[in-house]
């Protein structure tokens, strides 16, 4: 089945540790996105990538880093510089560019920093 | 990208039509209207999108006013599984990021 996978579903880390969230897709999509969602809020864009080896900051990139070495994979690292990392993280992918290309979302990773 | 305004919550009886409104008075000519929904603790799911004509698919209908300043998502026969937060988004025809507001929390009741 084609789709987007995120692992793990739940992740716990101690304060001050970096943590990397996985996102893999087998939809052959060029564009991939990372969003953060806080309780009762909409999604906010962290980073996005329209093509391999290229990515851009979204609205709340501070304290996060990404890489896009392969088309299928877009891992997100939450660094110790991120002041409030506890949140629900969602990865998405789409065909690039045009507005009629819907975004497909993964199931999300809920990160809790203790 | 233009901003949208949606009511924070709505109720609907099971089997009845759910009509979810959205205002996007600052929408520009090259922006599409998208609807997504998010069931609790899951990733958002695409529902439908349109530019200026009304659209229908297997999930819903989208009615866009002639001046394009507002739209309505219609779920013709709501079921309990339609309980979710519904997001109305406007997006440039150049694609790129989606900007999610707080959405409308729809509760379908038996």
- Stretches of chain A where pLDDT is under 50 for at least 5 consecutive residues are none
Question: From N to C, what is the helix and strand string of chain B?
Answer: EEEEEEEEE
Please, how many helices of chain A?
0
Q: Which pair has the most extensive contact? A: A-B, 30 and 24 residues
H/E element string of chain A? Answer: EEEEEEEEEEE
Strand fraction of chain A equals over 45%
Total helices of chain B: the number is 0
Major beta sheet, strand line-up of chain B: 1-9-8-3-4
Question: What is the overall silhouette of chain B?
Answer: globular
Provide a compact summary of the structure.
The complex is a heterodimer of chains A (114) and B (110). By secondary structure, chain A is mainly beta. Chain A has strands at 4-7, 10-13, 19-25, 31-37, 43-51, 54-57, 64-66, 76-78, 87-94, 104-105, 109-113.
Task: Summarize the structure in words.
The complex is a heterodimer of chains A (114) and B (110). Chain A has 114 residues and is an all-beta fold. Chain A has strands at residues 4-7, 10-13, 19-25, 31-37, 43-51, 54-57, 64-66, 76-78, 87-94, 104-105, 109-113. In chain A, a hairpin with a 5-residue loop joins β4 (31-37) and β5. The termini of chain A are far apart. The mean pLDDT of chain A is 91. Helix content of chain B is 0%, strand content 47%. Chain B is globular, with a radius of gyration of 13 Å. Chain B has a five-stranded mixed beta sheet, with no helix packed on it. Chain B is mainly beta. Classes of the chains: A mainly beta (114), B mainly beta (110). At the A-B interface, β4, β5, β9 and β10 of A face β3, β4 and β8 of B.
